[in-house]
Amino acid sequence: MSIDPRDPVAVAQALIRCESVTPAEGGAQALLESLLAPLGFEVWRPTFSDEGTPDVANLYARRGEGEAFVLAGHTDVVPTGDEARWTEGPFSGAIAGGELYGRGAVDMKGAIACMVAAVARALDGGGELPGPVAFLITGDEEGPAINGTAKLLEWAHARGERFSGCLLGEPTNPEALGDVAKIGRRGSLSGTVTLPGVQGHVAYPHLARNPVRELAPALTALLGEPLDEGTEHFEPSNLEVVGVRSGTGAFNVIPGEAALQFNVRFNDLHTADSLMALIRDRLDDALGAGAYALAFEPSNADAFLTAPGPLVEAVSAAIEAETGRRPALTTGGGTSDARFIKSYCPVIEFGLVGQTMHQTDERVAVADLETLTRIYGRALANAFG
Ligand SMILES: [Zn+2]
Questions:
Q1: Which pTM was predicted?
Q2: CA 23 to ligand 1 centroid distance, Å
Q3: CA distance to 12, 13, 103, 105, 227, per residue, from 17 (Å)
Q4: Per its UniProt record, what PANTHER family does this chain match (predicted)?
Q5: Spatial CA neighbour of 70 closest among 192, 150, 165
């Protein structure tokens, strides 16, 4: 039975039935190709590889010449957990009580289905798209994100593809369609402070040096002063200590080392580099340079902001026209592939209601799929307007 690309519910059901848990393609991108090619899209499906990570299938499709407006998303999904706990099978695409069940229903096969339907409706009966449109679809958003959007963008750019703006369909709404569009994301930086000591007998402390004593000034250095007060579009940056390691397990041994692990979610007042310098300065002041070791995890997540402008207005106006509400423009939550896209064109995120993402019984209101399809259709028209 062939699927009507104008019907977001049918497309979402078919996508959910593809078992595409990261990094498996599961037939989801083949299905998208089979829907987009007859709509006049030229479709490429590059697979990317890197040492130590699984190969990942990706899809790029374009219709029309020149700077394209990009509809972006991922077909991979997180694992289901215990399938027996689901009301409807996680790959069933079953509808019950007006809701479509399945892994990826909101994160984010549902939104991809709405993108396909919006485009198919614009082309229906000999219609035309308001300008060149591209689909940028990865299979590696929920995984290490090495062989996904970052490489797909590089690949497309090297082929001469250029973009005017991007709408990424991650689930952004906390309660109802129209709540929130995301116009940026905080950066993320993780690090470890290691405090050296000299291990010894607890009854002979003069023969040892206890590094646990240095945890107190180290904690004060990391947590004592706020990193900033926030900015117009961002909450204050936040450092959380997520781990404290020391001790041998014995009550009669002074440990030879202590360590603190921390993660910072930071706003646009910082870069990863400036934040590393700031943290080192504070630790130098508290502990003395050379009295500790500081190591940072590799970070590919800087903070970014798409300043309110034509793209943000195009999407906000489309949301308001269909839901009667202007979305709040926020930058909260975790990172997303928008962190890679922002280097190529302005990017905004708007998708379904995220309440059940990654949960057992992930599901979406069938009515929301229709509304989001209309929002995406209007956003496309506005973006070229
Ligand atoms: Zn997602």
A1: 0.88
A2: 14
A3: 9, 6, 9, 11, 46
A4: ACETYLORNITHINE DEACETYLASE, N-ACETYL-L-CITRULLINE DEACETYLASE
A5: 165
